[in-house]
Amino acid sequence: MGRKCYISPDDKNLCVKISTPRGQRSSQREISYLNRLHARDKSFDMIADFKGEVETNFGKGNLYELVRDYDGSISKNLEYYLSLNDKNITSKMVVLIENLRVYLKKEYILFSDLDMDNILVKKANESDYKLIIIDGIGDNNQIPLLEYIKPLGLKRCYKKWDVFKARIGKKFPDIVKSIKKFNDDV
Fold it and tell me: Which InterPro entries does the record cross-reference, listed alphabetically (predicted)?
């Protein structure tokens, strides 16, 4: 997308995303979408929330919640956990991916670019994990029609989920077989 991310010097639980010139339009679309989700009282249980804007020595930055594990460390991404080749962890990740699918479908949250590196695995304790999307939320069209015409939005989600599954399948072909299609029943 064209953004750099830094830990906020004012709050260790926030990060500052600074867009490159080519990423500014996408960032603004994502923020507008997140604001509309707030207005519709949607759950942010599995999305890193936008917290406002801040001036930095690099220009304007956008504040987001920084996803941390129970021990205070910054959460690692989904690809890290899948790469461990640990059957127990892999089976947990498959369950978490299913939980994410159900959440996105139930809350009708559009996504444009799900990838293993923009989904973090937050550890609430040693055995309780949850996926948090940190980037790629919303639709990347200029006009937000898909938000208001649900059948079209869901159709786009089906396609984008298939792209996400294909990305996982490229690196982890055995795992992708266990991941449901977006349009499967909840």
Answer: PhoP_reg_network_YrbL (IPR019647)
Last residue of a domain, one of 12, 30, 65: 65
Answer whether residue 23 is part of any domain.
yes
The residues, any chain, with a CB within 8 Å of residue 158's CB and separated by 6 or more, are: 181, 182, 183
Domain identity same for 86 and 169: yes
Question: In this structure, are 50 and 99 located in the same domain?
Answer: no
Where in the sequence is the domain holding 8, given as residue range(s)? 3-65
Q: What is the pTM of this model?
A: 0.93
134-178 pLDDT, tens per residue?
Answer: 999 988 776 677 888 888 889 999 999 999 999 999 999 999 999
Count Cβ atoms below 10 Å from residue 10 Cβ, excluding itself.
9
Look at 140 and 65; give whichever has higher pLDDT: 65
